Automatic annotation (TrEMBL):
Residues 7-123 form the MTTase N-terminal domain. Monomer. [4Fe-4S] cluster 1 binds at residues 16, 52, 86. This is tRNA-2-methylthio-N(6)-dimethylallyladenosine synthase. Catalyzes the methylthiolation of N6-(dimethylallyl)adenosine (i(6)A), leading to the formation of 2-methylthio-N6-(dimethylallyl)adenosine (ms(2)i(6)A) at position 37 in tRNAs that read codons beginning with uridine. Its main location: cytoplasm.
Amino acid sequence: MTDQTPKKLFIKTYGCQMNVYDSQRMAEAMGAEGYVQTDRAEDADMVLLNTCHIREKAAEKLYSDLGRLRPLKGARPDLKIGVAGCVAQAEGEEIIRRAPLVDLVVGPQSYHNLPAMVRGEAPAVNTEFPPEDKFDHLPQRRATRRAPAAFLTVQEGCDKFCAFCVVPYTRGAEVSRPMARIMAEARDLVARGVREITLLGQNVNGWHGEGGEGFGALIRQLAGIEGLDRIRYTTSHPNDMGDDLIEAHRDIPQLMPYLHLPVQSGSDRILKAMNRKHTAEQYLRLIDRIRAARPDIMLTSDFIVGFPGESDQDHAATLRLVEQVGFGTAFSFKYSPRPGTPAFGREMVADEIADARLQELQALLDRQQKAAQESMVGRTLGVLFEKPGRMPGQMVGKSDYLHSVFVHAPEVAPGELLQVRIKASAPNSLEGELV
Ligand code: 5AD
Ligand code: SF4
C-alpha cells in the first residue's frame, strides 16, 4: 500500500481549535497511508486546506490561498489538493466548480474517508453527516511521543442556533462522545507524554455521558488519570454551566483556573435578537457563582459588535458588562452576515459605526488584558514547559492562565511542569525564574 519514499502532506489549518484537532487526526489517517507531514507546500504531494466558515473573511481566505496554489498545481499536475473543514461542508461541490484545481472536498464529519478518497476508492466530494461515528474509523492515536499539551474532542456540533452563527449548519447537531472512548484516548495521550489536555467542543460544557453524566463528572474522571496534570476546556455556553462543572472548578486542582465563556453582547435586547437565551444580568450572576467557587479564575470571552439593530445604548451596555466582569483576554469581531443563518438579511449597522465600536471595545479589552497580565508579576505559577525560547538556555511554557512564560532554565526539558516566580510582563508574554 505504501511506496518506499514516503509521500508528503502539507496541511494548513484555519479557524478554531476543533480544526487544529481535526487536522491532527487527518494527518494521522494519512500517516497510515504512508504520508508524512511537511511544513512546505512546495514539497508536498498533497495539500490539505482545513477551512473555517465562521465569518465571511475566513471563507474568502480559502479562495485566495487556492489561487496561490495554482502555479504549483500547474507545474505538478499530480499534486493532490483537498479542501476540508466547514467551508467544505457548507459549499461542497461548488468549491470544485469555482476552483477546478481542487481534487477532494471533505466535511468535518466525514474525514475518516479521506484515505479512500485519495486512493480514488470513494467519491471526491464527501460532506455527509454519516450515521456512524468517524472516530470508529480513524486510526488509533498511538504514533509517536507527543508535545506535552494536546487537544481532545469530546463533543461536536451545536443545537443553540444563535442567529448569527453557521456552526449548527456546518458542524451539525450536538453529539457527545462516550465517556469510555474519551478516557481511552486521554490515557493513550498521557502514556505518550501528554501532561495537559484541552477538551474541545463547540459547546463542550453541553457534553453528557450515556448514563446522563454531566461535563463536571467527565472532568472528575479525567482528573483520576495519573500523570494528567492539567485539564482545560473550550468553548462553553453560559446556559450549560451546570453546578457540577462549577463545583469541579472548586474541587479539582488539575482543572486550570481559566474559563472561556462567550457572552457576545451586554445588551438584553441584542442578546434576545441573537437568540442567546440569557440576559446580561444572568451572565453576571453566573460569573459571581464561578468566582465564588474559584476566586482566582481568569475569564475570557467572545463579543460581536454591529449586530443588526445594535444601538449606541446597546453598545454602551456591552462596554459596561466588560467593565463589570474584567476579562483576562477576549476576542471581539464585527458582525459578518452569513447566508442561511436567521440574522442574514437583517438591516446592517453602518460600517463606520461598527468599526468605531469595535475599536472602542478592543481598546477596553486590551487594557484589561494588560492589567491581568501585569497582575501576574510577583506571583508563583505552574509552568508547563514546551520548547526552547529565543535566547540560549531559555525555555518557554504556558502558565496556569495560558500566558507564555520565558525562563532561563537550560536543564529543563519539554514536558516538565515547574513552579515559576513571575518577574516581568512583556507585551505578549511573561518572564520568570524557577523557584
Ligand atoms: N459574525 C461575527 N462573529 C461571529 N462569530 C460567530 N459567528 C459570527 C458572525 N456571523 C464569533 C462569535 C463566536 C466566535 C467563535 O465567533 O463571537 O463566539
Ligand atoms: Fe454558534 Fe451559538 Fe452554537 Fe456557539 S452556541 S456554536 S455561537 S450557535
